[in-house]
Amino acid sequence: MLKPVSKAIALIIVVAIFLTGCGTKELQSFQKDEFVLGTRGQIRVFSTSQRRGNATIGKAFTRIREIENTMSTSIEGSDVYRINKNAGKSPVQVDPETLKLIKMGIEYEEITGGVFNIVLGSLIDLWGIGKDWQKVPPQQEIEEAKRHININDLEIIDSSVFIRDSKMLMDLGGIAKGYAVDEAVRVLKNDGVESGFINLGGDIYALGNKPDGTPWNVGIQNPIIGKTNAIARIALADQSIVSSGDYERYFIEDDQHYHHIIDPETGYPSTNELVSVTIVSETATDGDVLSTAAFVMGLEDGLSFIESLENIEAVFITRDRIVYTTSGIKDKLEILDDLFTIAN
């Protein structure tokens, strides 16, 4: 997972500027879009065979749906659904893969100092952002929900998971999508795909180089609400890029903006100088978790935190349209929108 040097959505759409020129005539581009994990999924591969290309994409989407059916909070019978239904009652035996991801979530919680939390479900459900019941909850209800987000009340017993607190809810939404991207990449590689990309609602993985041998150019969307242009781009090969910010899922109440990234400490959507954080990493799982965690941490703490991690880079954008980067990515980022300025 993460290797400390000294010691880590709202779904922010990262716009992919995929230049698809092909220098190898035998290779053809095959693409399919499906609605998965509550978002638009897109997989593109380059193959010499239409049958093989389409079959490989189909396998990848099947793998994504397997993860969704096992780890969704809302699909009746999923592991997470059953864990929540049995909170305070009894342990639930789960699939080894679910157990693996829960253990990863516990590790991420420790790495991020509690900022990332897979048992934040009571608060997420209370706010209901993106749901029919989205609203600003009464302060009393927020304080009550905060009493039921202690990850120490989550117990793993052999191959079973038990939530001791009957009012605590698990939600793997902040990690499962990135994991699904990584698993889809594994499927493509196992089928011999050397060039392509996966985009699950902004969680992106650029597989290999483009067929002409050059890296993929991936854009970071303008985080100002109502804007859709890419404000910067970066060349990637065999890397993931994931963003989190305050302009994806949100609602307005009494002229106040409330987004979906909840700060466990306050129980409210995170409020600081940031509008988006983009993570470039070797896995989308890391990117999914760390983009959220760094956003909640804020600019100074988030930058310091990401700099302390190996093989992780980040781009932070503030409300005044200043772009901050970690040291390893500074010279690789190209600004496309003159209204945005690199600070460091």
Description:
- The protein is α+β, with helices and mostly antiparallel strands and 344 residues long.
- The protein folds into 2 domains: 28-69 and 174-342, ApbE-like domains (T-fold, Roll), CATH 3.10.520.10; 74-171, Orthogonal Bundle (T-fold), CATH 1.10.3980.10.
- The chain has helices spanning 50-71, 79-85, 96-111, 121-127, 139-146, 173-190, 284-297, 299-307, and strands spanning 28-36, 39-47, 92-93, 154-157, 160-163, 196-200, 203-207, 216-221, 230-236, 239-245, 250-253, 256-259, 274-281, 312-318, 322-325, 333-335, 341-342.
- The chain starts with 27 loop residues before the first strand and ends with a strand.
- 47% of the residues are buried.
- Mean pLDDT is 91; it is low at 2-24.
- It is a lipid-anchor.
What descriptive keywords fit this protein?
3-stranded antiparallel β-sheet, T-fold, 344 residues, alpha+beta, transferase, 9-stranded mixed β-sheet, 8 helices, metal ion binding, 2 domains, single chain
Concise account of the structure shown:
Helix content is about 30%, strand content about 25%. It has helices spanning about 50-70, 80-85, 95-110, 120-125, 140-145, 175-190, 285-295, 300-305, and strands at about 30-35, 40-45, 90-95, 155, 160-165, 195-200, 205, 215-220, 230-235, 240-245, 250-255, 255-260, 275-280, 310-320, 320-325, 335, 340.
